[in-house]
Structure formats: C-alpha cells, structure tokens
Amino acid sequence: MKHGNKFLISPKYLFVATVANEETQDVVLKVTEPHNSHYNFSDVQLPMKRLKDHSYTILDSSEGQVFLHVNHHGSKAKFGNIYISDSTG
C-alpha cells in the first residue's frame, strides 16, 4: 500500500497505517478483512474528525470489537485517546 508504514494482521482484520502528510506526520488507519482477495481498504472512522492522528496502537481485536489507542498530539504527547468499536469492528 502506498505510504503504508505499519500493519497488523489479525484473524478478523488487516490494518495498515499510512502517512497522509509527511511534513506534519499525520497518519490514516485503513482496514479490510484479511481473507478479502481484493483488499478493499476503508479508512477507520473515528468520532473526533477534527483532530489529527499521529500514531495508532491496536490494543485488542480478538473478540470482534476493536480497542484502539490514538495519539492526536504528536511525538511528544504524554497521553492519547482510547476508542472502542461496536461488535462488528
């Protein structure tokens, strides 16, 4: 994937973090099903659309729900936000 720099393959999901803006180091998280032969990626939808994303950590996705830590404040941030999806991911 173009500008992809980190990924995670789990039984239900394939996640790829891509660089959206090299200058500001903003990133976008994309997801698809790992068994999808066409790899139709979609952007992960977060509730805080006005915040920029600088890094992601998938905390857990073993039960279908996704627990996601997002750093919205850059490389020197001391904290981030944790999001949880619905049961469909």
Structure description:
The protein has strands at residues 4-9, 14-21, 26-32, 42-43, 55-60, 67-71, 81-84. By secondary structure, it is mainly β. The chain has one domain (4-84). It has a four-stranded antiparallel beta sheet, with no helix packed on it. A hairpin with a 4-residue loop joins strand 1 (4-9) and strand 2 (14-21). The chain is globular. The relative contact order is 0.20. The mean pLDDT is 87.
Strand content: 35-45%
Task: Note the overall shape.
Answer: globular
Rg (C-alpha, Å): 13 Å
- Low-confidence segments: none
Number of domains: 1
Largest sheet: 4 strands, antiparallel
Strand order of the largest sheet: 1-2-3-4
Order of helices and strands: EEEEEEE
Quaternary organisation of the protein chains: single chain
User: What do the pLDDT scores average to?
Assistant: 87
Give the strand tally: 7
Helix content: under 10%
Helix- and strand-based class? mainly beta
State the end-to-end CA separation: 21 Å
- Please give the count of helices: 0
Q: How would you summarize the topology of this molecule?
A:
Layout: E1 4-9, E2 14-21, E3 26-32, E4 42-43, E5 55-60, E6 67-71, E7 81-84
Antiparallel strand pairs: 1-2, 2-3, 3-4, 5-6, 6-7
List keywords for this structure.
89 residues; four-stranded antiparallel beta sheet; three-stranded antiparallel beta sheet; globular
Summarize the structure.
The protein is mainly β and 89 residues long. It has strands at residues 4-9, 14-21, 26-32, 42-43, 55-60, 67-71, 81-84.
